[in-house]
Structures are given as structure tokens and as C-alpha cells.
Specification:
191 residues, alpha+beta, Ribosomal Protein S8, Chain: A, domain 1, five-stranded mixed sheet, 5 helices, rod-shaped
């Protein structure tokens, strides 16, 4: 009898013969693509940012100098109470010191401080902003290139535009003089 011929050493053929017939798997669908971002009004955002920056940092003709007193009274504050505030007869319940802060940080901290004071029912707070006399060499620049105290003007501008501020006046000499301000806040409305 003749000897059987050895099978060829063709691995792929041997594998197919060993497993039998196969059927291909169905193709997986592609994963969904990320949704397109919603359209944004970029020009309006830029305009708003520019307006905010000019409100915050633009210095106009009525800039306060280091020795100028901060003073403001809303129509809601009786004149006799404002006189007491100017004379330093109203006690400060809480105080914030902005020394050493840059303008953006000072704005954020002051906004949070006033909101927190009002939320806790404080009626009179103090803010130490400094006069800007010693900061020209500092990195955070408490005075601008013309020597105008930046933090002092920021505090004045912010306080004048807040609806919850009834009035403010620079502190007495013993409490910081023109480097600090005493602020009267409107009582919070309980709901």
C-alpha cells in the first residue's frame, strides 16, 4: 500500500479546516459624533466684556486723589443719619482690608464682602482701601501711571452703583481717614 502523503504545513488552511465554515460578524455602527456647539454671539460677548472693563478700569475726569474724601448719600438715607455717618458716630460692625490686592481681586473680594454683610444683617461696614501713596513700586500697582489711587477709585465707583448701599463717607482720622470708608447698607428683605 502506498504511504499517505503528509498534509502541507499551510497554517491558514489547517486552521480553516479545523474550525469549519464561518460567517462574518455584522459591522458595528460608527459611534455618534459629538454634537456641534451652540452658536454664540461672540461680538456681543466682546462688547459686554469691553464695556465691563471700561466701567471697572476707565478713569474719567472726576478721579479721586489720595487726600480726597469719599462721600455719597442715596435719596433713601435721611440727611440726619448721613451727618452722623460723616461725624463717625455710627459703629462699624465688620471691616475689610484691601491692601496688597490687585484690582480684579479687590473687586471680587469687595463684592463678596458686601453681599455677605447684607446677608448677615449688618448695617454698617468699613472698607480699608488705602490712599495709594506707597504702592507705585509694588507689582499690583495700587496707583495708576498718573499717581491716582486705583483701589480708592474702584471702591468709590462700585459703592455708588450698588442698590444696597444707602451711603458712605471716608472714615474718621482715627479709623484710617481718606484711606478707608464707612458704608451704610440697606437692610436685607426677608422673604
Amino acid at each position: 500500500m502506498p504511504a499517505p502523503t503528509p498534509p502541507e504545513d499551510n497554517d491558514p488552511d489547517l486552521f480553516r479546516a479545523a474550525i469549519g465554515p464561518v460567517r462574518p460578524l455584522p459591522e458595528k455602527p460608527l459611534p455618534p459624533s459629538a454634537p456641534k456647539p451652540r452658536p454664540r454671539a461672540r461680538m456681543a460677548e466682546q462688547d459686554e466684556a469691553q464695556a465691563r472693563d471700561s466701567f471697572r478700569y476707565a478713569l474719567d475726569m472726576s478721579l479721586l486723589e489720595a487726600a480726597d474724601a469719599l462721600s455719597y448719600r442715596s435719596e433713601a438715607l435721611p440727611p440726619h443719619v448721613f451727618k452722623r455717618l460723616k461725624r463717625g458716630e455710627i459703629a462699624v460692625q465688620e471691616e475689610l482690608d484691601l491692601h496688597g490686592m490687585d484690582v480684579r481681586t479687590a473687586e471680587t473680594v469687595l463684592r463678596a464682602f458686601l453681599n455677605d454683610a447684607r446677608q448677615h444683617g449688618l448695617g454698617c461696614v468699613g472698607v480699608i482701601h488705602g490712599k495709594g501713596l506707597h504702592g507705585a513700586a509694588l507689582e499690583n500697582r495700587p496707583v495708576d501711571d498718573r499717581g491716582v489711587p486705583v483701589l480708592k477709585n474702584l471702591v468709590d465707583r462700585m459703592l455708588r452703583h450698588r442698590a444696597d448701599v444707602l451711603g458712605f463717607h471716608s472714615a474718621s482720622a482715627a479709623r484710617g481717614g481718606t484711606g478707608a470708608v464707612v458704608v451704610l447698607l440697606a437692610p436685607s428683605k426677608r422673604r
